[in-house]
Amino acid sequence: MAPEDARHTAAAAHDQHHAEPGPGPSTLMEDAQRMALAIDGSGTGIWDRDVPAGRIYYSPGWKAILGYAPHELGDAIEESYTRVHPADLEYVKATIQAHFDGKTDSYTVEHRIRCKDGSWKWISSRGKVVSRDADGRPLRMIGTTTDISAMRSLSDRLQQSVELITNLTNEVPGLVFQYRQWPEGHGHFSYASAGIRDMYEVTPEQVMRDADCLHRLVHPDDLERYRTSLAASAATLKPWHLEYRVVLPRQGLRWRQGAARPSRLPDGGTVWHGFITDVTERKRIEAELQEFATIDFLTQIPNRRYFMTCMDAELARMRRAASAPTAVLMCDLDHFKTINDNYGHAVGDAVLRHFSALLRAQVRENDIVGRVGGEEFAVVLSGTDVAQANRFARRIQLRTANTPFVDAGRLIPITVSIGLAAMYATDASADAALSRSDTALYRAKHNGRNRIECA
Q1: Cβ distance 333 to 351 under 8 Å?
Q2: Contacts with 450 (C-beta within 8 Å, 6 or more apart), sequence order
Q3: I need a surface site. Which of 21, 204, 235, 320 has the fewest CB within 10 A?
Q4: Looking at residue 289, what is its pLDDT?
Q5: Range with the lowest mean pLDDT among 55-69, 155-169, 203-217, 327-341?
Q6: What would the pLDDT profile of 173-228 be if each residue is shown by its tens digit?
Q7: How far apart are CA 376 and CA 337, in angstroms?
């Protein structure tokens, strides 16, 4: 404690002693000494400024913060300003002046100050004008100074870590996010990396203000599934995984894959930390692979494998609904080998595509058509009896005969043999109905071709 502080303390104790009964001077001095020791031991220094005289008195503890001995350092206020870092000086002076002018209740600043060895420390100074003259001008100001260098160093390191993580997440191709949801269901993004501009064509600031601006971009057909998956993750605290579509102003329809881990908040809400990436290209490749696996490359209609899968599904539907029989047709182009031999395989392939188009033009949306062999095609007419199927087969036969294939001005006539059979809910498998229609087809070809036979 500075000598002047001790004198002030002693004077106050003397005045109190004569004013009213109470503890003796020795007790007050002991309390003051204990207080001074406690302050010095806390690493906090005390300063006492005589404003009109332009002088400031420092406690030994204050001087020790900067590495000075108790007898070192002058008390001129202008000298004290020379120790303030040049980049902080105007800010310090302005803050003091604002308090002198009565604009603030107290003076609080954090700034750098030069130590005895020339190094810089961060300090926190707090003070207050304790007396003013009749015109309100400050006379005396008392305060404390604390070394906060370690805290500022830690804060700087944390800030550097935050900047590093932010820079890293902003470079990742995708969106890194933190999403908070209150117990009542309303949510907001407390963090979103720069990748959100590519993923959703919005800015991090937009989704932090309004999370719904992102949700409104989810494809309408996927929105309910999107919301349900988040609700399930919040309820069970199981990781959130979802593939869904978004419709963006510039990019149009895109696929997104989201993955995040939830945790419960103290208020009962949920917070997710996760990642969203673009999987549009992967979904395109998957669709192509699925198409290759199910579609006949030449005719672009279902191949045999997928056709049989569809037949199985139709049989299962019949068993569930106990509906009317479904008709199955087998169609075989007559004398197709002769077309290949006379015109070449390229023309033969074109004829297959030609007949496939004729067939597709006749079926309904819920019917199934497929290429099940070289020149063999099959049709499933859902909910159709044999008589109705026979009329359909007749239309196919007539359309084929009346629509020859044209190659470089040459007309290549085509006829088709058709065998048909009913598929029943009691069939052991879809193969049973296909086998019956195949038997009928064999009979049609054996009896002269360009015929329709029923099983």
Answers
A1: yes
A2: 334, 397, 401, 415, 416, 417
A3: 21
A4: 81
A5: 155-169
A6: 788 899 999 888 788 899 988 889 989 999 999 988 888 889 899 999 999 999 99
A7: 12
SS3 letters for 245-291?
A: EEEECCCEEEEEEEEEEEEECCCCCEEEEEEEEECHHHHHHHHHHHH
Nearest Cα residue to 246 out of 212, 220, 274: 220
pTM, entire model: 0.49
Gap between the Cα atoms of 239 and 258, Å rounded:
10
Q: Alpha helix locations (H) across 303-385?
A: 304-321, 336-343, 345-362
Query: Residue 144: helix, strand or coil by DSSP?
Result: strand
* pLDDT above 60 for 16: no
Rounded to whole angstroms, the Cα distance separating 127 from 140 reads 10
How far apart are alpha carbons 425 and 428 in whole angstroms? 8
Give the residue-averaged pLDDT of 41-61.
87
Exposed (0-12), middle (13-18) or buried (19+): which is 444, by Cβ within 10 Å? buried
**Paired tokens of 297:** 């490359």
Using alpha carbons only, give the angle 35, 37, 41 rounded to the nearest 5 degrees: 120
* pLDDT for res 172: 64
**85: nearest Cα among 128, 56, 121:** 121
CA dihedral 275, 276, 277, 279 (to 10 degrees): 130
Task: Check: CB of residue 245 under 8 Å from CB of residue 280.
Answer: no
For Cα atoms 377, 380, 384, give the angle at the middle one, nearest 5 degrees. 140
Chain centroid to Cα 164, Å, comes to 20
